[in-house]
Automatic annotation (TrEMBL):
<keyword id="KW-1133">Transmembrane helix</keyword>
<feature type="transmembrane region" description="Helical">
    <location>
        <begin position="122"/>
        <end position="141"/>
    </location>
</feature>
<feature type="transmembrane region" description="Helical">
    <location>
        <begin position="324"/>
        <end position="339"/>
    </location>
</feature>
<feature type="transmembrane region" description="Helical">
    <location>
        <begin position="211"/>
        <end position="232"/>
    </location>
</feature>
<keyword id="KW-0418">Kinase</keyword>
<keyword id="KW-0256">Endoplasmic reticulum</keyword>
<comment type="similarity">
    <text>Belongs to the polyprenol kinase family.</text>
</comment>
<keyword id="KW-0472">Membrane</keyword>
<feature type="transmembrane region" description="Helical">
    <location>
        <begin position="426"/>
        <end position="446"/>
    </location>
</feature>
<feature type="transmembrane region" description="Helical">
    <location>
        <begin position="282"/>
        <end position="303"/>
    </location>
</feature>
<protein>
    <recommendedName>
        <fullName>dolichol kinase</fullName>
        <ecNumber>2.7.1.108</ecNumber>
    </recommendedName>
</protein>
<keyword id="KW-0808">Transferase</keyword>
<feature type="transmembrane region" description="Helical">
    <location>
        <begin position="386"/>
        <end position="406"/>
    </location>
</feature>
<feature type="transmembrane region" description="Helical">
    <location>
        <begin position="345"/>
        <end position="365"/>
    </location>
</feature>
<feature type="transmembrane region" description="Helical">
    <location>
        <begin position="244"/>
        <end position="262"/>
    </location>
</feature>
<dbReference type="GO" id="GO:0005789">
    <property type="term" value="C:endoplasmic reticulum membrane"/>
</dbReference>
<keyword id="KW-0812">Transmembrane</keyword>
Amino acid sequence: MLNKPVLAESLIVFAIVLSVHAVVWDRYSWCAVALAVQAFYAQFKWDRLLQLGGAVFQFRTAANSGLLPASMVIPLLGIVMKERCKSAGIVYFERFGIVIASTGMLVALFLSVIAVGITKPVPTNTCILTGIAGSIIIYTMKHSLTVSEVIEVLEVLLIFVYLSMILLYLLPRCFTPGEALLVLGGISFVLNQLIKRSLNVTESRGDPIDFFLLVAVVGVVLLGLFFTVLFIFMDSGTWISSMFFHMMTAVLGLGVIMPWLYRLIRKNPLFWLLQFLFQTQTRVYLLVYWTFLAASACGIVFYQNAKRSSESKKHQASTITRKYFHFIVVATYVPGLIYDRQLLYVAAVLCLAVFIFLEYIRYFRIKPFGQTLRHLLSLFLDERDSGPLILTHIYLLLGMSFPVWLFPRSCAPKGTLSGAGALVPYSGVLAVGVGDTIASVFGSTMGEIKWPGTKKTFEGTMTAIFAQIIAVALILIFDSSVNLNSSYAWILASVSLVSLLEAYTTQIDNLLLPLYLHIMLM
């Protein structure tokens, strides 16, 4: 039987799916609903496999599979992007949205098929549902996609299969199946887009900052894979290995990643980046302000570690202490969203690259800072960091940045969308920076009435909804580009559904909540 929190989480996801398709119902809606029903049943099989230890790879413990909520994210993102760009008359990105939706459906269906295939005895009902959902999706793709788009979808699926086999083997207990679908599916799509655009430079469309994101993400992932394979054959904790790590990082960065980016943007990447960062006085002020906030975050880490006495080595930072970083991130993103979103876009990419590179140094124990980072960050671990990697801070950055990176600038003529869509870039700030933070702080300090089957409290959820409504009012006051056009009921419904999802999900909320709020507001 499915337990109550998982059932409640599934009902909330179904409510979001039906809410979106009540507005944009078309042939893809049948596919999305069929996929949701199929993923709901396949989730039973994944949860059973995880409980019995029958899954092929080691997944994160103390969480359900999360297949249903993860399966719907990429298809819904593609569908809402298609609708927005269709209304703006941008055919290229309308087709791009269809490709994203089709890719998300096929990858999610593949993950469900794996669960059904390795479950013994073979679950007949789930097999039938999977077959029906697969038939609907493939039939729709056959009549919607061109041959080149079908090939692109299959390329992403192939990359996802190989990437999953490699990374899930190398990184046990770091992901649930749902989180693996989101993270590895996203990386697979980015890698395929980068290969496609690199091979067709003359036909490539896009802003240099978009290419910068693609190259940065693929670059740090390939760097990690290279050193993971390398350090199988040598001890990564020695000075010789550490010197080789730094030397090869410089070689790969300057010899592969930089020329790759140069080929795409047709400019010297370093000169372009420096010119971009210091182009206006506003950008200089924002960079100085962000440097101060980064120093403050480092100060909190050092201060909390200094408080850790020798008698309490197993002491972990409290929930409220960890939420300090959420407040700092909100203070970082809000000025960027108001004054210069392009700078925020690039700064977030740089931050992501730095975070992942520092995690490599910590994970491989690269001298001279590897062991120090291990000691400093161990204080802030929680039950979600059960694998060899510490990913929660990276997920926080991703959750705040996804709405900025995924915002369809080409389909928003004036740089902003109308109605509730004007709040799309603020999805991360609202869902994670405000909602999740307030729910956690008030729920842990004053909450008494718990949601059935969870540790989350009714008071925390209600306070989170109220705090996000106040945040929307403040955004309206300080950001003149936001015009909601009386979309208040939809905004309230979106915020409420995502806050309820936060109460019941066992997945990484920093990753999941901003994406669902982004979808609802789009």
